[in-house]
Queue: 2 jobs
Job 1
Amino acid sequence: MNHVTVYTTTTCPYCVMLKNFLQEQGVPFKEVNVQLDPIAAKRLVETTGHTGVPQTEINGKWVLGFDPETIMSLISQP
């Protein structure tokens, strides 16, 4: 089972594109809006060193930005 968490902000167009892409692929994910959760935002920057969104954690590996090819390569197939 994949563990996918997408870190977003309310105003990010690439975040919307990424969430739509995952939904179209049938990939369940958890969304964390760092604009609404400053503690999560701080943790994210401490973990990855990046402030930009979207950032996606897939089974412990990180993808920065809207990168469908890398995201799909990290999602394990059943």
Job 2
Amino acid sequence: MGVICYADDTLIYFRGRNYKEAAWLAEVRLDLVISRIESLGLRVRVDKTEALLFHGTGRKGPPPGATLQIGEGRVRMSPQMKYLGLILDGGWTFGPHFAMVGPKVVKVTSALGRLLPNLGGPSAACRQSLRSLPEYGEVWCPGLGRSPHREK
């Protein structure tokens, strides 16, 4: 079990040999974590709670209609979830995330490409930022987009 907290977002993860074991551990331990959060005077919104089963590519995901009992409510297992701006999917493919981010990157670089010539070209800081855009994905998926001809 692990807990990652950032501002008002809490990510709790569990590991099990199979879905049934992981779900049972999640339900039992979530009660403990929620009790601790509430003892601090905070409230957990079950209606905003998401659950995702990480299962790796080529492996089975959760059973159809799978849910977790959290307090008095039930949370449906989702095929993907958004956490701190990153879309996570159970197969660790990051496909949904890059499908969301790709058009935004194209839009920003296109706008910069039209704007920068009117400003006398990009500054050194802007050129450095533009060079780092392809490496964005490498933070989450090392080697992504790495070319054998690219210098390290």
